[in-house]
# Entry
Amino acid sequence: MKYALISLAIASTASADQKPAPPPAGKITGTVIFEGVPPVRKDLKRDTDPYCAKNPALADDVIVTKGKLKDVFVRLKNVPAGRITAPPAPVIDQRDCTYSPRVIGVAPGAKIAVRNSDGTFHNVNGSVSGKLLWNKPMAAKDPDLALDAGARPGEVIDVVCNVHPWMRAYAVVVDHPYFGVTGEDGTFTIGNLPAGAYTLEAWHPKLGTRTLDIKIGTGAKAIVPARISYKTE
Ligand SMILES: [Cu+2]
# Structure
């Protein structure tokens, strides 16, 4: 009976020790801006597929709204030691003959769920630097595909549709969760950061890379704004 009590005491101490520490409070709240006159978004010719032709659409390779740039993948170049976990598994939806989202992050070897919300046929083709990873037909109402991100961190999987040449998405392979992708408002957030010095790297599929050094402090200095700028060439 005595032994049982001792082991119970040990067990309860162990479970108290295993309680996860709260995540660090540091956070980067960023905005990616586009200075100058943004490129004109051309009308896409989508009449090769009557389903896609029902809705007019504009080219989506550079989307600037009120001076803010969409589809910028922003990641930390140096990540906090001991805190590396895989990013959540992403979904790419084929909706209105467009990939949504257009830019995602995916862990090496993770699965990308590819959905077809359209009433038409797509063919999902993924490659890294011209090397084919997958080539999958997807009819309307087919269940989601689970496609392997068989690439190394830092590489980008180019996703195209062989049926609709205007469709294009990019899966950036990243082995940590410290990244964000800008929406139409140009903002991104990267949280759970301990105090320290970091380098942010922003990548836009058409406009390329920018870097920015950031210092995260403690208390009121734990939440740090970041402003990344792209300009017309
Ligand atoms: Cu398609």
Residues 1-14 have pLDDT under 50 and may be disordered.
